[in-house]
Predict the 3D structure of the following.
Amino acid sequence: MLYDGAVKQLDWALELMHLNENGKKDPGRMEKIGKAVVKTQEIICELMASLDFEEGGDIATNLFSLYTWFNRELMEANIKQDTPRLEGVRNSLDGLRSAWREIAATNVAETANREVVGIDIAM
């Protein structure tokens, strides 16, 4: 799932940022942080592109606004090496990931409980 990838990238960026905060800054590490943040932004752009505004209505519109805000926060966090901003986006993405997992699990359970209607062609 795209959310998994985004959270993973931000976890990696945050781990590297904490290393920079607790020791001496490493230019190579800064580049890795930037790449992880940019990868997260690319994932968010994929999420934006996958929204169906006709079927999704207000939910799609609200998610688009949220994803736009995420990308703006990530850009600022990357420029300023702002750990709290990265953590905020990471936690929000994790919350969305959990919500989608719950929705998927509910859908699977509802589908499993439905009576299958059809023609038995087995002989």
